[in-house]
Amino acid sequence: MRIVGFVGASGTGKSYRALWVAKERDIDYIIDDGLLIYQERIVAGKSAKRAPTKIGSIKVALFLENSHRMQVIEAIEKRRPKAILILGTSDAMVEKIAQTLGLGTISEIIYIEDVATEYEIKQAINTRIGQGKHVIPVPNIELKKDFSGYFLDPLQIFKRKSKGNFQEIGEKSVVRPPFSYNGKYTISDYAIYQIVNHIIVGMDEMEKISRFRLNMSDEGVILDMDIIMVHGYNLVEAINKAQNSIKDDLENFAGMNIQKMYITVKDLVMKKQQ
User: Fold this and answer.
1) Each residue of 180-194: b (16+ CB within 10 Å) or e?
2) Domains along the chain?
């Protein structure tokens, strides 16, 4: 197995450029921040970006937890990749990860300075420190089970092949982890209720919410509510419409992953009150 290291200081843009580096060297597998990634899909591990502290993030990235480490080792043994790109902040870190996972010695190390200009590196550092943004080289959908929140914008990446022509490389996720340099942020249950209530009372088919409950799980948000509907509308169609609107608004507004949503019609009114 060919093991290649990709090294750069924290926030210099390694994850942003990981897919480029891997594709140019015919590498299908990437190890980045605790994840084993195959062609933009997470196949094992958990994201260090989900850890509540910076120290916890480092421990995940180094695979120090036995169950996490064994899950990734078993996936590698099963898949038998020809090559793996390991991302790290130093030579010692990528070598430590390779040793911990039993991958052997590093055959080549690529540095962020080899693939990015000084200006691009400074831009990446400013984005990390100023906005707390981190990039994970997989699409948002791949992180749905790993993040309960903190999603920002998805990022579609293209690489210039020749003058005026671009090659599509893949989609990346931009997240703000709990240990963000901007500090931890929280959204109150009442703020979420206000968003949901605004959607419900704004629908011609709905009168109001009579009960609202929100629970957070490791995989996302669980919403449970009772509503009062207006007579004369198709109940199933109205609830589907409400669910889709609530899901879209919460994901766009707060980056929240909606795991489940229960809507129970408890009563009817004959006419919507103004």
Assistant:
1) beeeeeeeeeeebbe
2) 2-175 (no CATH), 189-269 (3.30.70.1350)
